Amino acid sequence: MTMEDARKHPPARPGQELERQLKPRHVIMMALGGAIGAGLFRGSDTSISQTGPGAVFAYLLGGVILLMVMQGLGEMAARRRDARTFRDLVSPVLGPFMGHFVGWMYWLDWVLVMAAETAAAAGFLSYWFSSVPIWLLALIVSVAMTVINLFQVRVYGETEYWLAFIKIAVLALFVIFGLILLFTGFGGHPGPGFHHLTDQGGWFPHGWHGFLASLLVVMFSFGGTEMIGMTLGETEDPERTIPRAARGVIVRILLFYVLPILVIVSLVPWNQLGKGDSPFVAVFQSVGVPYVPDLMNFVMLTAVLSATNSGMYAASRMLYNQALRGQAPRWFAHLSSRNVPVRALLTSTVFLYVGVIVAFFAKGHTFDYLMTIPGYSVILVWITLAWAYLRSGRAGVPIRPGLRWGAGLAILALALIFIGVIATTPVWGTAVVALVVVVICLGYVAAHGVNG
User: Fold this and answer.
1) Residue-wise over 287-319: b if at least 16 C-beta within 10 A, else e?
2) Among 166, 29, 117, which Cα is nearest to 359's?
3) Smaller CB count within 10 Å for the chain: N or C?
4) Measuring CA to CA, how many Å separate 410 from each of 123, 143, 216, 407, 413?
5) Which CATH code fits 17-108+152-291+374-448?
6) Is the overall model pTM greater than 0.90, yes or no?
7) Separation of alpha carbons 68 and 394, rounded Å
8) What does the record list as coiled-coil region(s) (predicted)?
9) What residues does each domain of the chain span?
């Protein structure tokens, strides 16, 4: 933030600032849980059907791209203790407009995602409570998530910690159990080993076109990992914690994406998947594990609740920070007695109740209706973070040559994926996103002028 910005928008008074109550274990688990959600448990079905066993390489390549972005995020975070969110890492090197733009795009992304995930949570709950209307279940989830986030940030951190722990524990058991079955056999059948990887058309039965198509799904699945950049103002010792969490991203991708996908396509021929159910359900059913629907319904429920919880946190902190930086009304910068940006939080949760209303009329199809706008914002945020890291080098901040090349390659790869998204997305969806971008730009011009 420039000196002029500091005079116009002074920081909150002592005692009215975000408190650093998130411990390293909270942030590490948020980084773990951020990329493990419905995109893995259900999205992997699409990526496998598009690519075949080669989906393993799509997730690996996506993980490498994400690693380059997160490494830059970690290094920038280590240099700026005054940053509250990653938009404070972008604005000093790319200018106030880019801070304004990336902040509002990210806020909009999360309020829409948490509305859709709340509707999805209601759908999973209806599996056990079929007599309760979907809209009422969505309302119960919305109120519960709002109350959790109104407490001190430590309560949010603990809630997210245990929700992420459940997902990670299930994945770890799945990998261990699956690797054993690969060589010991199941249901009276000998262990398949790795024969299924090549006996149904090879690694890439649909060629490179299928591989590139699945890469779009993969990158969307990784969305949320950058969320650790939203904790800069509330993390203990962020200069060490954030870079540590960022450096470990490739290990997390290998353990909780690549290995589970490898186990799935090894145990079950890829062309027997893609029937609409989660690939994890198909594997469990093929080996005769009892209560599979209940087990996976519970895991999926924790995944979407985790996403809703994270979305509420990210949206409220971004809106709060936008207000502090003069990019939103100062009214949103108010903190409660628990040092929670309560006005920004409650304003963001309005979208949850919009989801409840849609659930009332949509009769169970809310997730599809709310998620028709694709994840453009996630790719734009990652490109912006990598770009900011490169520009920080031009501003006289030393950066490692390897990471400079990595950030440049990440931008190139993400730009190609972005073009692929445009080519494969319905025109109306792209038009809506373009309209949102225009509105955000006009909002900046209205507040600061063309040369602001």
Assistant:
1) beeeebeeebbbbbbbbbbbbbbbbbbbbbbbb
2) 117
3) C
4) 36, 39, 14, 5, 5
5) 1.20.1740.10
6) no
7) 18
8) none
9) 17-108+152-291+374-448
